[in-house]
Each structure stands twice: as structure tokens, then as C-alpha cells.
Amino acid sequence: MTEATPTTTGNNDMFTDALHEVASAEDQLRGSLVEEGETQLNASAVGAVNAAQADVLRSRAQRERNRGIKNLEKRHEGVASVVLKVALNERVIGSAFERWYAGCENGIFVLGKRAHLFVGDTSAEQLMNQVIAKIQALENEAKTDLEGVKQQLSIYLTEASIKPQYVKPASEREVQLRTQLAHRLLKVVLAQDQILMGLVQLHWNGEIETAHIEAQENKAKKGLRDLATFLSKTMRGMRSKVEQKAKSAPAPEAGEAANSASIEQQDAA
């Protein structure tokens, strides 16, 4: 199927709404990720973070959380959805959820609803299949990790083992879900929280090292962040393609403009 060539003259209200939704989704996702020009540390440099860099990272994370929380609190009217209460005990999982989940939820919804207007049905289906594959991979990974942690708990812990508790959740929010995929992604986040809770209990009882927990934390953050990055790039691509077409479209001839104005005046009369 050929690529869609939407009208950009203002006559197509549906496309105008679609472009606004895509632009808004891209802005939301981009705002939840690293801003251009900010300090970024690669994996090999993590061990050498100085105090100034640590402050930059903490400040960036806080800004991302603040944006993400506002987006979690948004409610979208006129669309079938479910609103769920989410409580996450582990700080790293709660932070990742607040920073990136709302952007992913909105990106998935807009991609499924609007992509065909920008790239055609075939390409839109391919993009959605990529999102599905990424979420499926996260589901499989979380399922394997959770089963492994449960097995370790059953082997090593007894009634006499230490069972650490949480005074209150690290993050307790309500979220509006408009797609089944977003619901599946939320289940992944909840599973990741359970995995870390199990690992923390194993650590308290001397069965694993701190490095094991840190590796799991990094994996959980990376999975959600990578999905947000993919969706952000996808929205940006659709948005820029249409904006470039609009800029390159030839201006109407003087005679055409005059005729159009004359017709509008006659209609008004």
C-alpha cells in the first residue's frame, strides 16, 4: 500500500487533530527523556561519577518525574478506558514508572489511532508490531526473572528468615489505560517490582550480593526507557515528515487565491 499523503491545508479537521495528537505525544515523550545538551554517562563511566555529575543526574531525574507525574494525572475524555490504582514498593521501579510510563501509554494510544494517516496502513501495522514485540520481550524477561526469584525464595528462605517490610509505597498513583498494550506494559512494571522485592529479601538473608539487585534495577529502567525512546523517535518521524511536506508545498497562484477569496465572499453573502 502506498504511503498516506494527508491534506495540510486546514480543510481536513481529522488530520489536523491527528497532527496535534502526534506532536503532543512526541513532546511528552521527549520531555520524559534526556534533554539535548545535558550530561549523559555511558555504562563504562558510571563508576566514575563525581559529585557535580551526580547532582545533574538527580536533577534530571526529578524533572522527568515531575513531568511524568503530571501526565499520569491527566484524564482523557471521550475514550473507553480503565483507571487503576498502582502501588510500587521499590524506589527505582516507582521512579521509572513515574518518569516514563505515562509517555509510553500515550504514545501507544496515538500510534495505534493515528499512524495510518501519516505512513499508510502497512507501515502503521509494522510500527505497531514493533511495539508489540518490544512489550512481548519485556513480558518474557519479567516472567523468567520472577519465576527465578520465586524459586530462590522457596529454596533459601524459611520461617526464621528476615522478611523486610515497606513503610509505604515508593510510588502510589492512579493511571488511565486506553489500550490493552498499555495494560500489558503496566503488568510488566508490577512484575519488576515483585522481582526486586524478592531480591531485596534474599539480600537481607545473605543469599545474594548488592550487585545482583543493581543489575536488575538497571535492566528494569532500561526496558521502559528504551520503549519510551522508540515511541518518541517514531512520533518525531511522523511529525517531521508531514511538517516538511507542508513547508515544501507550493503556494497557491495569485489567481487561485483571488478566486478562492471571491468564492468565500459569495458564500458569505
User: What letter string, H or E per element, gives the SSE order?
Assistant: HHEHEHHH
Task: Tell me the Rg in angstroms.
Answer: 23 Å
Strand order of the largest sheet: 1-2
Largest sheet: 2 strands, antiparallel
Shape: elongated
Low-confidence stretches: 5-11, 35-46, 254-269
Total number of β-strand segments? 2
Our count of helices gives 6
Mean pLDDT over the full residue set = 83
Distance between the termini: 44 Å
Helical proportion, percent range: 55-70%
Number of domain units: 1
Strand content: 5-15%
SS content category:
mainly alpha
Model description:
With 269 residues, the protein is mainly α. The chain has one domain. Helix content is 70%, strand content 5%. It contains six helices and two strands, in the order ααβαβααα. It has a two-stranded antiparallel ribbon with strand order 1-2. Helix 3 crosses helix 4, helix 3 runs antiparallel to helix 5 and helix 4 packs antiparallel against helix 5. The longest helix has 66 residues. The C terminus is likely disordered.
